[in-house]
Amino acid sequence: MKKKKIPERKCIACNSRDAKKSLLRIVKNKDGEIFIDPTNKANGRGAYVCATKECLTKAIKTKALNRAFKIDVDDSVYDELLKELNNYNDEN
Q1: What pLDDT is recorded for position 62?
Q2: 3-state DSSP call for residue 22?
Q3: Reported pTM
């Protein structure tokens, strides 16, 4: 029997590859809203980050989300993402 292929994605902060399900997906939808997608199914452009505060802070510091979404991401959005990450980690 064939092994099922596990999809991998690359973290935009530390450039490490990992299983898609273990990474955190950040989405920019058509309206320009940027948020964490816990379902991994939201419509829009997605970027993946390790589900750690260190990787998200590194992505903020290096402006990795600006490059991934090809827009200037406001600092308030980064603050909101950090709050969402804390809530996400509390749930899991």
Answers
A1: 93
A2: helix
A3: 0.87
